[in-house]
Specification:
Chain lengths: ~325, ~260
């Protein structure tokens, strides 16, 4: 209930905040009478609603993706980009810009390259019929480093205008995204969330370790591949919609576990809800703080979020540990 | 129900043979202790019996059905393997850990909990004497309590066959007694228990039968008195043993001096 209220409040805030000030009453009117048209109607339906919808889905996708990988690898430092999704997408987009690809094609290029990178990482991490946690982390970290180097190389050789396009993407933003982009990624989001829901009971047993999970009849290889597929689809869809928005996928699962406990039946939906709320609020702040300039979403989340998170978790009173309650 | 048998079992890894020609039976109501020197293949045998390691030859039969033909959840409703002392799960209460035992009783994707899940969990907790500790963080348990909690998980799981790999090797004598007495009570109630033990005195005192392994082969199986003899132990371990009179009868002990 409290989580639903947080999400609802975040969505309302996201609707209210923007370059044009709209009175709540006019906003509500436009929201519930979509056929009335007018400037307010256009702003609400063509600009703000798609933007908060995308923000909510990006936040939920990143948080759930991170939650799944942290749970499978039992490693609190893992985030959705571990599998190389963002680095692979970034490298492909940088190369695409360098080769003069059209802007509209960039999200698709990034999506395909992100999935391909994750596939490569998974192939390297394979052992027997399942996955090896250490190999997955090593493969993900090293391929990410390789692709980041390619991005850096491209940036140093691109013309200023082109490098700005790549940089904007790397910094993460919801600016200029609309219903089209959301519709295009919706199938991947749906499949990703559905697979995530499917593995929740098995993820619960993984808290006790792989040996115990196996003794409980968990089909480990199947569950590992489902988790990897779900987290990759969600991360790739999020990266396609928003560029690289860090922090959410790493931190929100920790907050969710602290609030509702480590049982994924509660912690996974809580991660989705908190991730949505956080990204929508942060996006509203990125628009409202220094109008008409927008602070890139990923940058804002890191600048405000990281110190707050460090304070919460690492303060000397030791109220919490990274992994656990 | 709960009869586990190995038939001419062999386990190999690419470079060498770990187990060869193992045939033995674990019966309901009995504790069978696996003893033998390090590297003899006790853990490998237990993992093969638990369906974790796939044998190169031979088969493991659960009530006459090849274990390899069972679905993982069907296997987990009948048999479980507790590997040593698993690391304590963080951020979970004792009750939450024990309740994981109900996983194989639902479809693997099913989120729901039924009333009999809670009943089975509470019954298991009380059977191992941890009802009062149910709400404590699992990490706060002592080693001996944690071992009893893992056994409670197996009880909640409803298995007829319990395989345990060195459940007492890190426990002091009193907690070791606690755990072994609990296993004996479970066996007397009808469970089939197979347990790897390093302490020959524990094997002699608690096991109904003992299987002595050396170099991947079964050297002897039988009652503790028949198997734990100085000659066969010396052959297996490579050191001398002597007979010591105890209140429970003569026992073989290493002749350290």
């Amino acid at each position: 209930m409290a989580l639903a209220a947080i999400v609802f409040g975040a969505l309302a805030l996201g609707l209210l905040v923007g370059g044009t000030t709209i009175a709540p009453a006019a906003l509500a009117h436009a929201l519930f009478h979509p056929r009335d048209g007018g400037d307010v109607g256009t702003i609400v339906w063509a600009l703000r609603l798609p933007r908060i919808a995308i923000g909510a889905f990006v936040g939920a996708a990143l948080a759930v993706s991170g939650f799944l990988l942290q749970g499978m690898l039992r490693n609190p430092l893992v985030d959705p980009f571990l599998t190389g999704v963002s680095a692979g997408a970034g490298a492909a987009i940088a190369i695409g810009v360098a080769l003069g690809a059209a802007s509209v094609a960039l999200p698709a290029i990034g999506f395909v390259a992100g999935l391909a990178t994750a596939f490569l990482v998974a192939a390297l991490a394979r052992r027997g019929s399942g996955l090896d946690a250490e190999r997955l982390i090593l493969a993900g970290v090293s391929l990410s480093a390789l692709f980041s180097a390619i991005v850096a190389l491209a940036l140093t050789h691109l013309a200023a205008g082109n490098s700005a396009e790549v940089l904007a993407w790397l910094a993460g933003s919801l600016a200029g995204r609309g219903w089209t982009e959301l519709a295009w990624t919706a199938p991947y989001l749906v499949v990703g969330f559905a697979l995530a829901a499917l593995v929740v009971p098995a993820l619960g047993t993984l808290r006790a370790g792989n040996d115990v999970a196996r003794a409980l009849g968990v089909d480990l290889p199947r569950v590992q591949w489902l988790i990897l597929a779900a987290s990759t689809l969600l991360a790739a869809a999020a990266v396609t919609l928003s560029g690289i928005v860090g922090f959410v996928g790493l931190v929100v699962p920790h907050l969710a576990r602290r609030l509702v406990g480590s049982d994924p039946r509660w912690a996974l939906p809580a991660s989705a809800a908190l991730g949505s709320a956080l990204v929508v609020v942060a996006d509203a702040a990125s628009r409202a703080l220094f109008p008409p300039t927008e602070i890139p979403l990923g940058v804002l989340l890191a600048i405000v979020g990281v110190p707050a998170f460090l304070y919460l978790y690492l303060r000397p009173s030791g109220a919490a540990r990274l992994w656990g309650t | 129900m709960g009869h586990l048998g190995a038939r001419d079992l062999a386990v190999t890894v690419p470079s060498r043979t770990l187990l060869e020609g193992i045939s033995l039976d674990l019966r309901p109501g009995e504790i069978l202790a696996f003893v033998g020197p390090n590297g003899a293949g006790k853990t490998t045998l237990l993992r093969a019996l638990g369906g974790v390691v796939r044998p190169a030859r031979g088969s493991v039969l659960l009530d006459g059905i090849p274990l390899s033909t069972l679905e993982p959840t069907a296997r987990a409703r009948a048999l479980t393997l507790l590997a040593g002392a698993p690391p304590p799960p963080g951020a979970m209460s004792v009750r939450e850990v024990v309740a994981l035992g109900r996983f194989p009783h639902r479809a693997w994707y099913d989120w729901r909990r039924r009333p009999d899940d809670a009943t089975a969990t509470e019954t298991a907790l009380s059977q191992v004497g941890l009802s009062d500790a149910a709400d404590r963080p699992f990490e706060s348990l002592s080693s001996g309590e944690a071992q009893r909690a893992w056994i409670a998980l197996a009880v909640a799981q409803g298995v007829r066959v319990m395989l345990l790999d060195e459940p007492t090797s890190h426990l002091d004598v009193r907690y070791a007694h606690d755990v072994l007495a609990l296993l004996r009570a479970l066996a007397r109630a009808g469970a089939t228990v197979g347990v790897v033990l390093h302490d020959l005195a524990q094997a002699g005192a608690y096991a109904d039968r003992v299987a002595l392994l050396a170099q991947g082969r079964l050297v002897a199986t039988g009652s503790p008195d028949d198997v734990l003899r100085p000659q066969s132990l010396r052959d297996a371990y490579g050191i001398d043993f002597e007979i010591v009179a105890t209140r429970a009868g003569p026992r073989a002990y290493p002749a350290y001096l």
